[in-house]
Write a structure and sequence with these properties.
Elements: H1 7-16, E1 21-27, H2 32-41, H3 44-47, E2 53-59, H4 66-71, E3 79-86, E4 89-97, H5 101-116, H6 128-138, E5 151-152
Parallel strand pairs: 1-2, 4-5
Antiparallel strand pairs: 1-3, 3-4
Helix pairs in contact: 1-6
Length: 153
């Protein structure tokens, strides 16, 4: 699991894993359900079953991510968002609020189809700074593809 300390760190993680699904996991150290989710996401043996996804822990108490939390309308913890970098922009596929491991795995399995569609997109690349700017700017858009998959537990 990646734990960025800044938006620059997060942009780097996104760019380095553009061939995988990204699980943006919003949590906090004081959140009980977040601890259960984090335990699963840091279990290497368990996560080896989901090797097409990279987990990124976003600490909601880190002031560097306050705008990101607003952009994604983080209202409860934990919140998980499965996203992928497509055409230099983040495409949000699924959002889940609360701790529901079975639902998260179901969302992962459904999201795999976006990787198959992505094979031709990886061949075009731009400079890192230009891509970095576009990635950061895409966070200000609500591009959730499937709003009906958004659950509250």
């Amino acid at each position: 699991m990646f734990i960025p300390n800044s938006m620059t760190d997060l942009d780097t993680i996104v760019l380095e894993n553009k061939d995988k699904l990204l699980l943006l996991y919003f949590g906090a150290s004081w959140c009980g359900p977040c601890k259960f989710l984090k335990k699963n996401l840091t279990d290497d043996k368990l996560m080896s079953n989901y090797n097409k996804m990279v987990s990124v822990y976003i600490d909601v108490d880190n002031d560097n991510f306050s705008d990101l939390c607003k952009t994604y309308n983080i209202a409860s913890l934990p919140t998980q968002i499965i996203t992928i970098l497509k055409n230099d922009q983040l495409l949000n596929i699924h959002k889940l609020e609360g701790f529901n491991w079975e639902k998260l795995i179901s969302m992962y399995e459904d999201s795999l189809k976006y990787l198959k569609d992505d094979s031709s997109d990886d061949k075009s690349s731009e400079s890192n700074s230009k891509t970095n700017d576009k990635t950061s700017n895409s966070n200000s858009k609500d591009s959730t593809e499937d709003e009906s998959s958004s659950d509250s537990d």
